[in-house]
Design goal:
Elements lengths: L3 H14 L5 E6 L12 H8 L8 E3 L2 E6 L9 E6 L4 E7 L8 E7 L5 E7 L5 E6 L26 H10 L4 H5 L10 H11 L12 H20 L41 E5 L2 E5 L13
Helix pairs in contact: 1-6, 5-6
């Protein structure tokens, strides 16, 4: 699943190539791609036609385009993009051949010669229209109002995060993947940040001291910024930016996907363990598991 860096790369591409343009027409080629828009394909197309796309926004892994309105009231609706496992938002020339898994085409009322395409091989993702949170300057869709701010957000509250983390009575990796606590962190970057912090994924959150919590946040931000600098992590052609280009952070991963390879810090063979229908990668020497609690 794309995580914060991959989604931010797409957001930046949309900000450059799609924002500020007025929609001329929308073609829905697969109804599953707008299944979260309960009014159906025709209503989705009609609601977008003639609307101007505002500046692309992101919170954690969620990406949306506010629809601009006349007057000082601010955006009242937004197009929410859910990329799922294989969703792509591509800016393509009109004459470019249709992708095999093209689901939605958005044409614009200008002479730029490009259109916005939503391509999704596995059809787990999609686009939908939602009301925005009243008074929110970013036009936050109401359906994701419960999502916490992400660690790269200037308004992220480190102290509040640490206090909430200790109250959760869970384990570290479960907490990092809880999008109502901290958004944008997924399986890959959780493993990377925990490795850098020398913390085991099953360590109880209640045992994390404030300095160790601050160190973990620092490493989360570092790994995400490093991934952003090289376009995110692309293990295959599914994770791309709006121009179809892949990211290269997979070449710099220290933990994720490195089972049986030597730890880059101590040389011990890295391990993989099944975890919540996923996998966790860690160094058994650098990231000591928590001691079993006494009965």
């Amino acid at each position: 699943m794309p995580e914060l860096p991959e989604v931010e790369v797409v957001r930046r591409g949309l900000e450059r190539w799609a924002c500020g343009r007025t929609v001329a027409a929308v073609q829905v080629l697969h109804p599953r791609a707008i299944r979260r828009h309960l009014a159906g394909p025709e209503d989705f197309a009609a609601q977008l036609a003639g609307r101007r796309l505002g500046v692309a926004r992101r919170r954690g892994k969620y990406l949306w385009l506010p629809l601009e309105t006349e007057g000082p009231t601010g955006p009242d609706r937004a197009v929410l993009a859910h990329l799922g496992m294989s969703g792509q938002l591509l800016v393509q020339p009109h004459e470019a051949p249709d992708e095999k898994h093209l689901r939605i085409r958005i044409r614009f009322d200008d002479t730029a010669g490009t259109e916005l395409r939503f391509v999704d091989q596995r059809t787990f993702g999609g686009l939908s229209l939602h009301d925005t949170v009243p008074g929110d300057p970013d036009g936050l869709p109401d359906v994701i109002a419960h999502i916490a701010r992400d660690p790269l957000d200037p308004a992220f509250d480190d102290e509040a995060f640490h206090a909430a983390l200790r109250r959760r009575r869970t384990t570290l990796k479960r907490a990092l993947l809880d999008q109502s606590l901290i958004s944008g962190v997924g399986n890959i970057y959780a493993d990377e940040a925990l490795w850098r912090s020398r913390l085991h994924y099953e360590r109880p959150t209640a045992t994390l001291t404030r300095p160790r919590g601050a160190e973990l946040l620092t490493h989360i931000r570092e790994v995400m910024n490093e991934a952003l600098a090289v376009g995110g992590t692309s293990f295959d052609s599914l994770y791309v930016n709006v121009n179809g280009e892949s990211g290269y952070f997979d070449r710099s991963l220290d933990a994720y996907g490195r089972e049986d390879e030597p730890c880059r810090r101590c040389g011990t063979a890295m391990r993989r363990r099944p975890w919540m229908n996923r996998s966790s990668y860690f160094c058994p020497r650098c990231q000591r598991p928590p001691r079993p609690r006494a009965a």
